[in-house]
From TrEMBL, chain A:
<keyword id="KW-1133">Transmembrane helix</keyword>
<keyword id="KW-0472">Membrane</keyword>
<protein>
    <submittedName>
        <fullName>ABC transporter permease</fullName>
    </submittedName>
</protein>
<keyword id="KW-0997">Cell inner membrane</keyword>
<feature type="transmembrane region" description="Helical">
    <location>
        <begin position="113"/>
        <end position="133"/>
    </location>
</feature>
<dbReference type="InterPro" id="IPR001851">
    <property type="entry name" value="ABC_transp_permease"/>
</dbReference>
<keyword id="KW-1003">Cell membrane</keyword>
<dbReference type="Pfam" id="PF02653">
    <property type="entry name" value="BPD_transp_2"/>
</dbReference>
<feature type="transmembrane region" description="Helical">
    <location>
        <begin position="239"/>
        <end position="258"/>
    </location>
</feature>
<feature type="transmembrane region" description="Helical">
    <location>
        <begin position="153"/>
        <end position="176"/>
    </location>
</feature>
<keyword id="KW-0813">Transport</keyword>
<feature type="transmembrane region" description="Helical">
    <location>
        <begin position="35"/>
        <end position="54"/>
    </location>
</feature>
<feature type="transmembrane region" description="Helical">
    <location>
        <begin position="265"/>
        <end position="284"/>
    </location>
</feature>
<feature type="transmembrane region" description="Helical">
    <location>
        <begin position="86"/>
        <end position="106"/>
    </location>
</feature>
<feature type="transmembrane region" description="Helical">
    <location>
        <begin position="205"/>
        <end position="227"/>
    </location>
</feature>
<keyword id="KW-0812">Transmembrane</keyword>
<feature type="transmembrane region" description="Helical">
    <location>
        <begin position="61"/>
        <end position="80"/>
    </location>
</feature>
Length: 322, 711
């Protein structure tokens, strides 16, 4: 049996899990398990959307900007005493519009996805900061119970955000696995030219990928706002979008597209979650956590590269060595 | 007055075709530097707009300040560009930059290191960071984007950790080093020191990238990794070194930044990778690799810096600035993609530029008393090497009756005399051998299409004689390289005169040059005594075929598309004179060679047709044809019929040999007389013909006619 990257990462996660379980007293408690999943649920949700786009041989670097701006706008509208459903609708439509714009730029203007989404991210963030809201941090409206219930409601003892993560991964998994749309995404990701030649209207499908990713970002933003009772726009300036990408790639979804599924995202999220949780219990400072996390990520992709060497013939791509 | 008639008037066509240099547009478009036109215009536009909006834009202080920022940012963009040219990407530039700022300040402010030591350690640190990237991407073949993304975060975390521990010490410490201050704030001849340092490095890299082997190898690896590997370039080392250099340049940028500001913050270098990437792409560096230059990096860096600085000065807030930057990135990539995709197509449409050419009325070939009267005398010739050779453009025989010819596979094939049944590959050169001649020592001299003039000695040693001539001052295409040297002959003193058909097209595009019928060919002379090559007669229409006259002071040359053979005196009292000899051939002349009776043979590679003759007077028609009609539908010379004519020095046609209908020898491009036989070659034929000339001298050998009897 070939050891896939997913396998490597899963074994790594399992080894870390075993290590922490053996050395840390509080690690294997139900409460900590919930905290573990909870800490990475937002990253995981974003990873689901990113995973879908990456399978279709794209990349969406605007996800964090979309998440931050659309939800901040919702909160600022709600504070300006708009009814919450209306505000939510506005935010959702805004997110969809961003996805549509990215998708059109990638599919119809044929701008490489990295640049198109990098630019839309910059523009969305700038526009949001300039026109949609004024302060850096938006708090959830106190009079509304929507966000508090989102963070407090549990299903069978499992917090709502974890349920949302699970549900969303199931939906996208089914979408990719069982629908024609999903199969066509794989076809496009595997070989866009062949997909196009065989009559698939690849451009609308590419646009749809980015719209879905943006919608997922909006949901992730709602979960984040509920968890933190607010949304800080400074999140955009952090390395979060890279973390999302790493969750996806770590799990084994190749950036060249056409490979992997939502299971890979879950595996990637699991590793990051176990790591973060263990390090937090060890009381390692945030900056050191970042260092350790990224070194382990580097180890993972290095091992993958050694186990599955790239084919020199197809190694170089038109749009650079991504 | 009827304007449409007035403008379709032939004299107007003639005037515009002669004086309107339409071909210049297409030739400019083939230049590599034309890529820089769009970013350069964008830069001018940005400078003009910002200069008029921003107060004190042109003030000395703001220019000096801009210069210092350009030095730092430009080095980072150059670092990224080098990696992008090699086909990779380096996002970690931002973190290497910030780490270097920190390390410089720790060294100078906290530990009071001497400045050279601090600089050396910073550069070593940058090289080490680059080596990590280079080892992972070059040798372990990890994906560049992903790997440098991770190293970006790793180096950034290192910065954050160190910054937390050292920031107070850096603030408290103070450098009294004058050198450090001088690097950061000093001026030399009114220019910031850091700008001078960065400028020197930029010039050095420009020379490396455009003029030296390491730079060419870098570009080759980025352009086509597999081909570079096959060409023997150490791809992995090249990629590795690209990242190492990227690290070194970024660390130098960080050092300059530290010297200028003397402090660092939590957000130093955050987002630098995005602006550097934007600058690189904006300058025109291709994200796919293989295309990029120092000039592009500088233009991109200037554009981004001027834009962001001006927006800050105008009081535009940060978010809107980032929106504008995003929009600029989008537009830049969009134009870059469109340009790359459509460049060749635009070029193909613009490049072909037909000239105006009037040929005299076709001579009669049907009348029995015409010198060109049709016959089938070449049809039933003996066939040599049928199916063994492809494309014997020229044939030649040595004193021992061995027959030599070129093939399109890049070989010179020798058929052993006297029966020419057996053959061997005499020499492999690699390009299609065209015209051939033996020199006094018995060396075979060959014109190779696309390669130049070569010599094959009797013991099969291949030597390049020349592949370039003097560059003419006003030619836009680089006419120093020989693109289509096609026939040669040797003067008694050993000088080699050879014709080059065209400087505008490659050998396989000869038919497009026929459509143009533009004077872009020439006669070049190579002097073996000095090894020099000079263009002797410029502006000939498809110069094709050269033969020394028996007087040793002049030569005959053919210009295919004007259907003329002329005589040119290169020595003696009439030196420099050109005299048209045959001005109205029924076909397109190719090689010319001596005949045993003191006259000359000329091959006609194809026949004129009334339609093409008429089209030659209508450049607009041919231009539209080239743009709108697929090349296989164009009007071509009729190459289905071959012909050989014999002419004398007075310009009289003595004899015409035809294979009407071209059953055995369509498109005859060369013929050689040897011991009473005429040997026929054709650039598209798969055989050599052998025709018994009635009444010819059965002992005459061309080599003896040139160099005297065997010693």
């Amino acid at each position: 049996m070939r050891l896939t990257q997913e396998g490597v990462v899963f074994l790594l996660a399992a080894a870390l899990f075993a290590l922490f379980a053996a050395t840390l007293q509080n690690f294997l408690t139900p409460g900590n398990m919930v905290a573990l999943v909870r800490s990475v649920a937002i990253l995981g949700i974003l990873g689901l959307g990113m995973g879908l786009v990456v399978i279709g041989r794209g990349i969406d670097l605007a996800m964090v900007a979309t998440m931050v701006v659309s939800v901040s706008w919702v909160l600022s509208l709600a504070q300006a005493s708009f009814p919450l459903p209306v505000a939510l609708l506005f935010g959702f439509l805004f997110a969809l519009a961003v996805g549509l714009a990215s998708g059109l730029l990638v599919a119809y203007a044929t701008i490489p996805a990295i640049f198109a989404t990098l630019a839309t991210g910059l523009m969305v963030y700038g526009m949001g900061r300039a026109w949609l809201f004024e302060v850096d941090v938006q708090n959830t409206p106190a009079q509304s119970t929507f966000f508090t219930s989102l963070s407090e409601i549990t299903v069978l003892g499992i917090p709502m955000m974890i349920v949302a993560f699970g549900l969303l991964s199931a939906i996208i998994w089914a979408l990719l696995r069982w629908t024609q749309f999903g199969r066509l995404i794989y076809a496009i990701g595997d070989n866009p030219v062949a997909a196009r030649t065989s009559g698939i209207a690849i451009r609308p499908l590419i646009v749809a990928q980015y719209v879905i990713a943006s919608a997922v970002s909006f949901l992730a933003g709602l979960v984040m706002a509920a968890a933190n009772s607010g949304m800080s726009t400074r999140v955009y300036n952090s390395t979060m979008i890279y973390d999302v990408l790493l969750v996806v790639v770590l799990g084994g979804i190749g950036l060249s597209g056409g490979r992997g599924s939502m299971r890979n995202v879950l595996v990637g999220t699991l590793l990051v979650g176990v790591l973060l949780n263990g390090m937090t219990i060890y009381d390692i400072p945030y900056t050191e956590q970042n260092l350790i996390k990224s070194i382990i990520l580097l180890a993972a992709i290095t091992i993958d590269s050694l186990v599955n060497p790239r084919d020199e013939q197809t190694a170089q791509q038109d749009l650079g060595d991504i | 007055m009827n304007w449409s008639v007035a403008f379709s008037n032939e004299s107007v066509i003639k005037f515009t075709a002669r004086y309107l240099p339409r071909h210049v547009v297409g030739e400019i478009m083939t230049k590599r530097w034309i890529d820089n036109a769009v970013p350069f215009l964008a830069l001018l536009l940005v400078v003009a707009i910002c200069g008029s909006l921003v107060p004190d834009f042109y003030a000395a202080s703001s220019i000096t300040d801009l210069g210092r920022q350009v030095a730092e940012f430009g080095l980072v963009v150059l670092a990224l560009s080098i990696v992008m040219i090699s086909g990779g990407i380096d996002l970690s530039v931002a973190s290497v930059f910030s780490l270097s700022v920190l390390l410089s300040l720790i060294g100078v402010n906290v530990y009071d290191w001497p400045v050279p030591l601090a600089l050396a350690s910073v550069l070593a640190m940058g090289a080490a960071c680059g080596a990590v990237n280079g080892y992972l991407i070059g040798f372990l073949r990890l994906r560049a984007f992903l790997t440098t993304l991770v190293t970006l975060i790793i180096f950034r975390s290192l910065y954050d950790i160190l910054f937390l521990r050292m920031s107070t010490a850096i603030m408290a410490g103070f450098s009294d080093s004058e050198l450090f201050f001088f690097i950061g704030e000093g001026l030399v001849f009114g220019l910031p020191v850091s700008l001078l340092i960065a400028g020197t490095i930029a010039i050095a890299w420009h020379i490396v990238l455009s003029r030296m082997r390491p730079g060419w190898r870098l570009t080759a690896v980025g352009g086509a990794r597999r081909s570079a590997h096959n060409a023997g370039i150490k791809v992995r080392w090249t990629v590795f070194l690209a990242y190492v250099w990227s690290g070194i340049l970024c660390s130098l940028a960080g050092f300059l930044f530290a010297a200028r500001l003397g402090s660092t913050g939590a957000d130093t270098g955050v987002g630098l990778e995005v602006s550097a990437l934007t600058a690189a792409v904006l300058g025109g560096t291709s994200i796919g690799g293989g295309r990029g230059s120092v000039a592009k990096a500088i233009m991109g860096a200037l554009l981004i810096l001027i834009l962001t600085n001006s927006l800050v000065n105008l009081g535009v807030n940060g978010p809107i600035t980032s929106t504008i930057l995003g929009a600029v990135l989008l537009i830049a990539v969009f134009i870059d993609m469109r340009w790359l995709r459509h460049r060749t197509r635009i070029l193909a449409k613009l490049y072909v530029s037909p000239a105006y050419l009037v040929l005299p009325p076709l001579p009669d070939t049907a009348a029995p008393d015409s010198p060109y009267a049709l016959n089938d005398r070449l049809r039933s010739v003996e066939i040599i090497g049928l199916g063994e050779i492809e494309g014997p453009e020229d044939v030649i025989l040595d004193r021992n009756d061995n027959l030599y010819c070129g093939t399109r596979h890049g070989d010179i094939v020798r058929f052993f005399g006297p029966d020419h049944k057996k053959s061997e590959i005499f020499a492999h050169i690699g390009g299609h051998p065209l015209g051939m001649a033996f020199d006094r020592e018995g060396n075979l001299l060959v014109c190779i299409g696309g390669m130049g003039l070569y010599q094959v000695s009797p013991d099969k040693v291949v030597t390049k004689l020349t592949d370039e001539t003097n560059r003419s001052l006003f030619s836009i295409v680089d006419d120093s390289r020989l693109r289509l040297a096609d026939d040669l002959d040797i003067a008694p003193d050993g000088r080699i005169y050879f014709s080059e058909a065209t400087i505008r097209y490659e050998q396989e595009e000869w038919a497009t040059d026929a459509l143009e019928s533009r004077p872009s060919g020439r006669i070049i002379v190579y002097d073996p005594r000095t090894g020099s090559t000079r263009t002797e007669v410029p502006s000939l229409v498809f110069a094709n075929g050269i033969c020394m006259s028996n007087d040793g002071r002049s030569l005959f040359f053919a210009e295919s598309w004007t259907c003329t053979i002329s005589r040119y005196w290169f020595d003696g009292p009439e030196k420099g004179k050109i005299e048209p000899l045959l001005t109205n051939l029924p076909g397109y002349p190719d090689n010319i060679n001596r005949a045993s009776d003191g006259n000359y043979w000329a091959a006609l590679l194809g026949m004129r047709t009334p339609a093409l003759d008429l089209a030659l007077r209508m450049p607009g028609f041919r231009r539209r044809m080239a743009r709108r009609v697929a090349p296989d539908q164009w009007i071509y010379p009729n190459v289905n019929t071959g012909c050989v004519v014999k002419f004398n020095e007075k310009g009289e046609i003595l004899e015409s040999l035809w294979d009407f209908g071209g059953e055995n020898h369509p498109m005859i491009t060369s013929m050689r007389e040897h011991k009473g036989y005429l040997y026929l070659g054709g650039v598209s034929n798969n055989r050599i013909g052998r025709y018994k000339i009635p009444g010819a001298d059965p002992t005459w050998v061309a080599e003896e006619s040139y160099w005297g009897p065997r010693k």
